[in-house]
Amino acid sequence: MKRRRGAAARRARPLLLLPVQAAALIAVGRLVTGPAAHHWPLAAEDRAPRALAEHRGAPVLTVASQWLSTLGSTQVVVGLTITAVLALLRLPRVALRREALFLGVAVAAQSAVFVTVTAFVERPRPDVPRLDAAPPTSSFPSGHVGASLALYGGLAVIAALRLRGPWRRAAMTALLLIPAAVGLARVFRGMHYPSDIAGGLLNGAATLLIAAAALLPGRGCAPARPHLPAQTAAGPRGGRTVLIVRHPYGCPDELAERLRAVLAGHGHAHREQRWIRTTAERPAGALAEELAGRRPALVVACGGDGTQRACAEVLAGTGIPLVVVPCGTGNLLARNLDLPLDPVAALDACLAGESHPIDVGRVRGDGLPPTRFTVMVGAGFDAAMVKDTSPRLKSRLGWAAYVLSALRHLRDPSVRLTIRVDGVRPRRRRARMVVIGNVGILQGGLPLLPGARPDSGRLDVVLFDPRGPAGWLAAAAHLVLRLPRRHPPAPAGARTEAGGALEYFTATRVDIRCASPQPRELDGDPVADGTRLTAWIEPGALRVQLPRTAAVREPDEEERHGNGPTRTAAPRRAR
Predict the structure, then answer these.
(1) Do residues 336 and 361 lie in contact, with contact meaning Cβ atoms separated by under 8 Å?
(2) pLDDT at res. 304
(3) pTM score > 0.85 for this model?
(4) 554 CB contacts (<8 Å, ≥6 apart)?
(5) What share of the chain in percent tops pLDDT 70?
(6) Rounded to an integer, what distance in angstroms lies between the CA atom of residue 49 and that of residue 184?
(7) What is the pLDDT of residues 482-493, one digit of tens each?
(8) Where does residue 562 fall: left (phi above 0), alpha (psi -120 to 50 degrees), or beta otherwise?
(9) Less Cβ around it within 10 Å: N or C end of the chain?
């Protein structure tokens, strides 16, 4: 019981960011009403409510704005939230308790942040005839817009996670359009400036992000894993010795004892278990030395992506299965293999499963000797985010700590680079970030490389270069709208998405040359800054132990129409 409460407390840690959100909005509000008020564009934004007030002659617009404004009112938002929460709890087939809690917390937290901000920021309403009675709160931020985004945006998130078929995207789009329409209606009715609407959207979006990180960890985001051909059946293989590589902080003593019992329950007696501790200097511990003297049945890696990568470096090409036990912050390899994120559950499921081959990537560069990776290697924005994330904050907030680090690098400049794919003529580009991936799903199910698969025999590459706020929003919208889907392998060649903010490539070998040294990361661990990265694929080099699948899944709608994998002889593959 204590362990369950402790796990729940750790998952709820992102909610501690709500005071930070309130403080940030207060700072923005003070800036909007203070030093920035007399500078463009804030100095000219009163033209918007004036211009709209001059076009109130059409009764249909006035009535429509009244209905839209009502959708964001306190009474309607509270009533619809209670109705939606009760409906989610009383669904006939399965009660969506986490989704219900997420929606209720998001709406309540947004309201609390809004009240806190208006206590410290005082801004009068626009000096135009108003169609509604002005509430006593400050004009900044818009409470109607923030509340509507928390409610309807929260419902859109639930729709993205739970709905399937053609109605999913239509429902998400309709729900996400409501807060924007409410904001336009509030300006039309003379209640807010455009910057008030932006503040409300920021409040609602930040609240949704924090609530989702705390209450929706990995729910419905990992795609279903198809059946793969297994090499051998479950149970001890070859020798009966099992080597367990353990990160001492990710896998503390109490957890290690529970894992030891699971191994024993699957036929690996305590005397057959040999435990290896990792160190900062030796992330795989003495695994290489142990393998020189014996061939174990399994190697179990208890740690984060860095520990998994270090073990894969040693095991690639040996045929010895690796058991991935997620004990880190990101656990991206486990997420992309659709493993349980609870370490004990993951070990139990994998030991009852079968081993399958997956690819590993290999990379080298200036100051970076040839090194294998299982997840991703990157340069630029993502590496700077990883490098500057506080270890202390990461231990308290989990992967949500990366969000705070990312905010500090949003205005980092792009860099000139060349990319050479499979030996063809180099292409010249500018980008804030380049990521080369063996898999493509990030925390929260975000599909950065939507077509990447760990057994496709190729690498997926993305260049990320959003131009201004519109570019960031286009890229974010593109990725979020693809959240719960299974994606076929990416087509060969280059393609752009989100108005050019994202450019994708697939290849077996990729060469990147940057004009200036950039931060670089390898499976979530920072490495030395540099200008060059050369990566290539080692197909099927690593065997991993995965939970047994009951049957081959049915092809999805895209595959039925010929948009799925083009290799007719290839088995259905894991994501």
Answers:
(1) no
(2) 92
(3) no
(4) none
(5) 83
(6) 10
(7) 654 455 555 555
(8) left
(9) N
